[in-house]
Structures are given as C-alpha cells and as structure tokens.
Amino acid sequence: MLGNLFERRGTFQSLWGSGALFDRTSYTGVTVTEDTSLRLSAVYACVRLISDTISTLPVDQFIRRDGQRLPYRPREEWVQNPSMLVDRTTFYQQVIVSLLLDGNAFVHLARDADGSIVEMNVLNPTDVEPYIGTQGKFYRMHSTGTVYQANEMLHITEMLLPGDVRGVSRIKKAKDSLGLGLALEEYAARFFGNGAYAGGVIEWPNEISSDQAREIVNSWEANHKGLRRAHRPAVLYGGAKFTPTTVDPQDSQLLDERRFAVEEVARIFRVPMFMLGVTTPGAVSYASVEQQMLFFSQHTIQPYVQKIETAFSNLLQNPQTFLRFNLSSLVRADLDTRTKAYSSALLAGYMSVNDVRALEDMRAVEDGDQYRVPVQNIPLTDAEVISVQQKARAAQSLTIAGFTSESIAQLLDLDLESTGLPSVQLQPPPDPEPEEG
After folding, report:
1. What are 384-412's pLDDT values in tens digits?
2. Positive or negative, the Cα torsion across 271, 275, 278, 282?
3. Residues 325 and 252 in one domain
C-alpha cells in the first residue's frame, strides 16, 4: 500500500516536507514538520544549543581496572574519526539533531571482512523505517528501497513507547504548540508587511463600481503598504474619508503571545529561558543562573550523552571498554570556588597536589603524588610514626598515673618490651660519685 502511495504521489521526502504522509496540520491550520519547525527562532536556538554543546565535548575510550577508569590504548580509530565525510564534531551534531527533531538517529555502519567498523554515516531519519521481520529487525530506506540488517545500523531513540520500534517525535507530539508559534510569526510578519499605519477603511461619498473600488485600493496600497511606506502622509480627493483601524502597538508586536511561544519551546526542549535570550526583569540572578546551568547539564545534556555513550560502547570490539564524554567543562566553577574545593580535598586526603594540577591542565611536580593525612597534613608514609608517637604519649601518662607496663601495652596494643623500671620522673636521683683522695 505504501509502495502504491509513493508511486502515485511522489518521493518520500516530498511527502514528508509537505506533511502529507502524516497528519502534521495543527489546530491553527499551519503544517508543522521537522523542517518548518526550524523557522521558529526558539526551536532553531534550542537545537543549535544542545547539539553544539554535546558535539564539542571531549570523548575517549576507557577501561576500568580495579575500580579505576583508565584511558584505553590503542583506541579504535572510529572513536575520534567516525566518518570520512564529516569531522567528529559534525558527526555527533547530526546524531543529536536527529534525536531532537525526529526522536530517532540512524547511523549506517560500514564493516570490513572481519566485521570491524571502518566508517559510520548518519542517515536522514525521515528516510529510514525500522520494522520487525521474521528473522529480526530490519531498516528500509524509502528513497532507494535498500534494506539493512540490524548489524548494519545503529538505531538510537529519544523516547520509545512500549511495543514500538520507532521513537517518538517531539515535533509531531507538540505540533499544536509549535503551530501556534509559527502562526504568530506569520501573523506578525504579515501585519508589519501591510504597514502598521495604513490599515483602515476608505469611505467614498458616492456610489462607485467594483473596478473603481479596486483601483482606489490598489492606489492606496501602492503608496502606503509595507514598512518603507508606512507613516507617509495621504491625500484624499472627491470627498473620500479614511477611517483607521490600527491596533495598539503592544498588540501589534504580539509581545506577550510571542514570549509565551518561546516559553513553550523552552519547555519542550528543557532549555532554561535565559539561554534563549529571555531575561525577565527581577527573575534572573546570579544564583538562579548558576542553578539553571546545573539543571541544563543534568537534565538536558546528560540524558543524551548517556544514550550516545551506551549505544556506541556496544560497538567496541573489546566489551570491557566503553565510550565516555567529559562533562566536567559544563559544571566547571570559577577560580575562587575551584580553589576552595581543591583546598578541602587536599586537607581531607583524597586528592594529591598532582591530582589538582591535572584538573587545571598543569604539569605534575616531583613528589606531588603523595596523599596527606587529615588534620596532621603529613604524607601517608609518615602516618605510622605519628600513630606510635601519640600512643607513646598516652603510655607515658598512664605510667605516671601508676598503671603497669603490661596493662598499658595491652590497652594500647603496643608490641614493645618494658625494662620494668619506673618512669624517669619517678626514679630517684643517682648517688653522687665518691671524691677521690
């Protein structure tokens, strides 16, 4: 049935772009597709913001040994160069854009005779249709009719409903909200295109024919329609009267409606308002911006990063290795805050000087790998000496108090032999030596 539909109506891309294949018409009468949604500046800004942020993050191949994450070398070639057509940043940007607009990302995997991946290419998600066959999952290309097997395609979904094989498109689900924004954009453009001052009714005292009325309207529009001709003085003759019907400037700019449309888009993409250039007076402070940046990193960026990490890690030849993006740059604090955090870490003993210098992209220093004991702030190698010293002080106090050497050694767990003599403070002074002669 779909094949006959394509033969009668044209290509899949033309159907998708026009919204004819699926019901993409919103209640406003505006057709909303992945392409038309980008006409909204807020949608375009959200897509660029999220895709640019993730695609520029450092990524590497790691392995975990003894609970420690270590870089894996030699890493697979496609980790840093996944495609021969585009660079790594553009490759991951295409993956994120596909997820943001279509809810699906399809990556074609080119393998050699040994089954190793030699190249990856992100496909147009509107051109791929996944389906379940008798022998597993397959992917059909609408444009060429080519069918790929599961091991030839990497399919990442943003949100997958139970029982479905294709992810949910937020553009399709939110078409009414986006359609309202597109309608407001078109309305504002047409309003100002017709001129904000020249709107009104021309009253003629005598009866005129339809041709005369059309000529009067055409003459009026020729001199007053458009932004360049707005506010030009008008000359009426023959007893004609012009009654303006312009609206209030606040209404003409549609500020409240268009701001609400931006808020809807920000809600759909989970992007803080200030990152779209919306700064409501009194609502944005330094503290709130810092918290919103943390929200953006945890609830907007991290879910996409984890999906990509999981999907691409399954393609690595060594199953013990994994792909990981470095998100530390997104939550990197200012210098004063970082310095205080590093000082606390050094005093607590869970970071060394070289650990701190590595985070600041500084070269390691000699003897900088030693960890220090809290409070005493000494190297761990000297911790045993300090412990014995403190026990010796306690033994000295107990000896003065009259405790026996055996009880003190048992109490403090000291494996030391006692001379049996009392403390030097309790010993009598030595007898004076006799004088000679």
Report:
1. 666 677 777 777 777 777 777 777 777 77
2. positive
3. yes
